[in-house]
Specification:
With about 300 residues, this protein is α+β, with helices and mostly antiparallel strands. Helix content is about 25%, strand content about 30%. A hairpin with a 6-residue loop joins strand 4 and strand 5. The protein is globular, with a radius of gyration of 18 Å. The N and C termini lie far apart (about 40 Å).
Amino acid sequence: MDDTKRLLERAQHLAPPPAFDLDDVRVRKSRHERRRRVSAAVVGLSITAAIVAGAVFAATTGGNPRGTVQPGATGIGGGLPAPIRLVALGPGEFSYQRIEIDSTSSCADCGVTHVELLAESWWASDNSGRIDVSTAQNYGIHGGTFGAGAFPTEGDLTGFPTDPDALRTFLLDRSAENGASPRPAVTPAPGVPVEEGELWLAIQDYLGSTQYLNATPQLRAAMLQVLAQDPMVQVSTGATDPLGRPASTLRFHAHDADVTVFVDPTTDDFMAKTERFDDGSIGSVIVKEAGIATSDRDVPQGHQITVPAS
């Protein structure tokens, strides 16, 4: 019984709360199904959610040098270095991501569950695009080509500011009790202010998550700059991600998990996230490639790449 209670509490942290109008029945039903799927399959992400199996996560925590933080500047809540370049989505272009999710969880009452996903997505500002699913095990997602206004997302993000200061205020307002997407007022760890946990819960679903494939590289970069300013976050540069790519890292403990977020040092785009929960369960999301593409059949080229291919 105690195991079940802990698992349900962790699922509550990972599953995003309702964030949409009551009239949006389809979206609310989709979110309900996602909560059920996450609780049963992952026992715990996200929308923010994404974005490798436990062996890859272990590479970030010891043994294998791939993914370990190399010597470099380190600070607590000091923020990320300014991106060398920002890539904006233009008319007729597509925000592209190739995401791999692989996680394993276990408990006394539910046994071992494995979740796996490999998918590519192309999203345009008229809410058209394409999703190509190569692998989906214990993960609910549908591929296809979608006309204008038909791309499956869990919310319109066009009103989200991309200036980090404005975005921080916007996210906290949304997360407030009377906001558009209220978050639980729970401290993320002993001695850590509630506000810092609210920001992480507000941001995580947009990082490598199939809920919000309409999150653009510019918006993701702004969200990571906001997260890096949190005092609970340790920022390191000169690191590598789980695939060996150069990265900055954001490390912190929140909601019963040690979290590492990997950030592209050139564009500040999201590269990967690994989590190790206090009960030993692990999970990770890796963006294997991202950027801006000229069509829904092409991948980003040159300066339009925000996360290089692994």
